Amino acid sequence: MSLDPAVAAVRLAVRRALADLEPGDTVVVACSGGADSLALLAAAVFEAAHESWQVIGVTVDHGLQEDSAERADRIVQQMRDLGVAESVTTRVRVESLGIGPEAAAREARYAVLSEIAERLSVRVVLLGHTMDDQAETVLLGLARGSGGRALQGMRRAFEVYRRPLLDVTRADTETACLIEGIDFWTDPHNIEERFSRVRVRTKVLPLLEQELGPGVAATLARTADMLRADTAYLDAVATSELEPAREGNGLAVARLEPMADAIRTRVLRLAAVEAGGTSAELFHSHVLELDRLVTDWHGQKWVDLPGHVRALRHDGQLLFEPNSR
User: The pTM is what?
Assistant: First the structure.
């Protein structure tokens, strides 16, 4: 009996993502109970059986819905049924603190996964983001004016985290679950059109497919990959230029002015994040206002940034200070 193409696609993606692991290594899989993460978990368990890896399934209960605790218990049982070596569930308290519920939940989730990875000395944590998630991220970034940074989308790997399914569609993960008899949960937040990501998913991408032809999601994901290397290089150059630009408690305008625009704006963004600016909500429009303090100075008072930080120019320096308002 031949293997279903969707199941094969998910397994191949996981196999490639874990090709550098050694026998006996441990892999953590973040599992929400949705089709993406359950298909990922099932593939990881399948591949682990051939490579003598240990798979730990982790589900994080954000407590944002009334039945979240019961659902977390069901996910734990599903993970056990799929054959994980160990299953973990953790409840977190999500506090928006001005960054929005989705971003706050994401930060809480990563904090839990990072703590588990460190405690267990785990080399790899797998996340279930798909090609469709990547396309949505690119479109949202463009709509928010995040510039070239938006086009690189989500990274395939960072720190201990890896995203094996960025070349796999959401439809494939759902099909894989159906073929393997895995019941998956659909988050009601994923159909609430008050969320911009849901509107991109249910209206914008289908319209683009209708008007421009099929394959838009794949094209957006491929574009992200093409630009990521360029962005990484420019970011590295900017990082190397940040330290020489420091002067006193800020940055020397005289050192910033002659930099190429692509480098200077990145240096400014790095400095803003370092000062406490919220990276996820620091858009290109904010960076351009910072840049005007350097290149188009005519006595502006300051620039307010997300994360309760403001930037101002004083006596030839660009300074960052807390904004208590």
Answer: 0.81
